[in-house]
Write a structure and sequence with these properties.
Blueprint: E1 3-10, E2 13-19, H1 22-28, E3 33-40, H2 43-53, E4 64-65, H3 69-79, H4 89-115, H5 118-129, H6 131-139, H7 156-180
Antiparallel strand pairs: 1-2, 1-3, 2-4
Helix pairs in contact: 4-5, 4-6, 5-7, 6-7
Length: 189
């Protein structure tokens, strides 16, 4: 369901929140004014990431903040979609996959330069590239969220996806490891 993540100014305080009806929320906020908002299918995770981003400015146990002008500009930029800040938990999976690809390339190049064994180098690359996925399994995210700000069990689907990818990569690495030690006898002519 599409909802909005918004920033409201009320006096010298700012509030980050999410709602499915921006007009009714705006009416409740009087005399506050909505400064910026972002429409998303995953509002809780985007809101949680913003809450984490401005954690030091947060009034404890609330969604209210004492933001500077530069913080407000930065928050508006995120809410207008003009930043590279991940907007959903699915973006965490993409971050992990990009990290895995980077690990694979670096490890393969280093290993191949050292031992000149293609399959063994490929095995090491796949094995090490599974590490970001394993960290996603155990941590649920890469540190962009505080668990207090996310709904219970919201990272379960990412953990399961990460687990399946990590198991696949580790299994493939195991097969490559066995292939790297397999030798084909040379037949006499």
């Amino acid at each position: 369901m599409t909802e909005f993540v918004y920033l409201v100014k009320n006096g010298d305080l700012y509030k980050l929140g999410c709602t499915s009806n921006l007009k009714s929320e705006s009416a409740k906020m009087k005399p506050g004014e909505i400064i910026a908002y972002f429409k998303t299918n995953d509002p809780k995770s985007f809101q949680a990431r913003l809450l984490r981003l401005y954690k030091k400015k947060r009034i404890p146990d609330t969604n209210y903040f004492r933001l500077s002008e530069s913080d407000v500009k930065s928050c508006k930029k995120h809410l207008e979609g003009k930043s590279k800040l991940p907007k959903s938990l699915n973006d965490e999976l993409l971050i992990g996959l990009n990290g895995s690809l980077l690990f694979a390339i670096i490890i393969f190049l280093i290993s191949f330069l050292i031992n000149k064994m293609f399959i063994f180098s490929f095995f090491l690359a796949i094995l090490f590239s599974s590490l970001p996925m394993w960290s996603l399994v155990f941590l649920g995210s890469f540190g962009g969220y505080d668990t207090d700000d996310l709904p219970l069990l919201s990272t379960v689907s990412n953990r399961i996806k990460g687990f399946l990818i990590a198991i696949s990569m580790t299994s493939f690495a195991y097969i490559l490891y066995n292939l790297s030690h397999f030798s084909i006898p040379i037949l006499p002519e």
